[in-house]
Here is the input.
Amino acid sequence: MEKGLRDKDGQLPGKTIIFARNIAHAELMAQLFSELYPQHGANFCRVIHSKYERAEELIDDFKSSDENSMRIAVSVDMLDTGIDVPECVNLVFAKPIKSKVKFWQMIGRGTRLCENLYGLGQHKTHFLIFDHWANFEYFDENPEEEDVKQAKSLLQKLFEARINLAQTALKKANMDVFDQTITLIHDDICLLPMESISVRDNWQVVETYKDLKRLNQFAPNTASDLLEKVAPLMQWRNIMGQSEAYKLDSELTTIQTLLLTDANQIDLAKQSVMNKVESLQMHLNEVRSKAPAIAQMQTEQYWQYLTHAALEQSRIDLRSIIHLRNKSVTPPTSDFVLDIKEDANQIHETDRLTKIVSIDYQIYRQEVEKTLTPLFETDSVLKKIRNGEPVTETDLAQLSSLVHTQNPSVDLNTLKEFFPESTATLDKILRTIVGMDKNAIEQSFTTFVQQIHTHVNAKQQRFIGMLKNHLIRHGSIEIAQLYDAPFTQIHDMGLDGVFSQQQADVIEQFIKQFDVQLGDKNQTVDKEVIV
Here is the structure.
């Protein structure tokens, strides 16, 4: 659920086959899944075995591309061979395999090509195998392991867009828009499935922001809490059959934000929405009942005198029918060329005034992360930073130049201005944003355990695994954090409750190398820009 390849919206795992040992094993896994993720309902993960009378119907349901069809099939021999499900992108080997022929046949369940799986022109290019029984080692196969970095889910993107809209409205003192947006954010939080284990682990922050009064105050730390702690939980909401509605919500939220920030961009942003509206199937009674709203949105007057309230009403009217459109109709596209001739007499030189703009840390951090992530595998300086290796000023200047080329709105040195009291170098600040490389962390901990010659029990292994995951994700850790959640999930006393005093002292000395002292953070910094 967390590491597997997801569907085109990033909200749910793609089609997945789990190869179980026997019926009892399969039914146990399906039962555990239901207990951990009850929000997805009974048909999301099903056992398929020949003893079931409806086995063939279940297979047909799994093969279906319908949004409400089965996503995870726990198979007992029935899907090992001879079944083609091109949409399948995750295979879980939950049993030992002794036949090499069968081993390759099972792998073949993921090799089927599937065009447009992730949208028009975005084909299936690879799939993942989770091998829990070392079958690859048994057959002397050593493929490269892949650490999948999940893209943000559809609902996380929508939630973040609404937070951005609320922040923008508050800065503009547009309290009507702010109040309406806060209500939507509150509704999103209240719809989180508290029975889901991942949401339950974060129940305190969720319950805190279910308080509408607290949300309306929108204190300086509220936005950061919502973006860092609540937004990622949106992936656990079940929106099967509703993805088109939430895509419309997201697109219209973007336009509502542009109304407050840059109305000139609305013409470009509205194209996707209008293509959908114009392709609605008007012969359907459900669509025809919304004819006034559809017609209004297609008038020039609607867009010429556009308001937040009009967009919100359109969103409410159309979200329930937006999926009822002719999706085979592709919007017309045409290349156009602007042939602009330069007239030397029209060139003027003048001094440009500057103005001071306020930059929000969370928004800027997200922009930095978005720019750096595609460079993880190609940029040598970024590799050094994620491996915890020292870098020079020349290295950082080279990286800053590359980033500015990729995204002119990002200047890495601006990050230091958010932490005026910190002595941390830029590479360490960047590490707290991009995290650390999994292989580097694994090697570092393996070397550490070998050096101290200490046997670790299951609880200690779990603690160390949690520590590794934290460093991979956050790039740094302070000793005090080892005595707080989530480490207190293993023992109330954190580090001291899991390890002896001597072991704890050794671990504290070891992790000091990962500590990045950032000091107090400025939520915003002011920058001078040319106008």
